[in-house]
Amino acid sequence: MRIRVINPNTTPRMTAQIDSAARAVAALGTEITTQSPSFGAPSIECHHDDVWAAAGVAEQVRLGEAQGADAYVIACFGDPGLHAAREFARGPVVGIAEAAFHAASLIATGFSVVTTLTRTCVIAEHLVLQYGFERRCRGIHGTDLAVLELDDPASGAYERILARAHQALAQDRSGAIVLGCAGMAELCHRLQRELGVPVIDGVAAAVKLAEALVGLGLGTSKRGDYAPPPAKTYAGLAAPYSPR
Ligand code: 5HY
Fold first, then answer.
1. HEC states along the chain?
2. Within this chain, do residues 92 and 208 fall inside the same structural domain, yes or no?
């Protein structure tokens, strides 16, 4: 099966990190293609970044449909453009936040999210409510690390995430940690060893969920709101993205 992993930000080194995290868990026979949109923000850290990220995801899903993708992973913790992507996609579209929430809820009665800038916590809160995980998500905690600081050794990112995770587990009385950014994927196993609780990286969880859905012969429903968008002509810079 062919899984198109979309990094909605435009930072090539992050696309490479996401690609290796996806390949590390992909089953034999799963072909991973990791792409960033041709436009957008170098990191997604606010509502405005999210708007362009969503449009970028739509661009990549339309390309994926033309190239025969069987499933998609949206590798950004805000799951930008998830619903619009499902309108275009025949196969499953899995956002890393939704995937991580499901995985965490199967192995702990309650989980905590540790994320980047505190201002992005509200985006995760909105997703928790939208997906119906308000009874399982016990807290969302920012580290005030910028997304592009995560792999900067001088930022002390690992130690700051570890300390915040310890605090969250104690404060929330939760049993698992969900990492609130695709850029934290590389830290997952080390954090799990040091914390002694399950730590969920959404990129890995989403790839395995996408494989499972395709393996079950399931695609995105085309009945109701995920039916293809009605054809119309968009104006201005959106014109090339007009649904046909
Ligand atoms: C992400 N931003 O996963 C989100 C994380 C965040 O560029 N990739 C990004 O801070 O919301």
1. CEEEEECCCCCHHHHHHHHHHHHHHCCCCCEEEEECCCCCCCCCCCHHHHHHHHHHHHHHHHHHHHCCCCEEEECCCCCCCHHHHHHHCCCCEEEHHHHHHHHHHHHCCCEEEEECCHHHHHHHHHHHHHHCCCCCEEEEEECCCCHHHCCCHHHCHHHHHHHHHHHHHHHHCCCEEEECCHHHHHHHHHHHHHHCCCEECHHHHHHHHHHHHHHCCCCCCCCCCCCCCCCCCCCHHHHHHCCC
2. yes
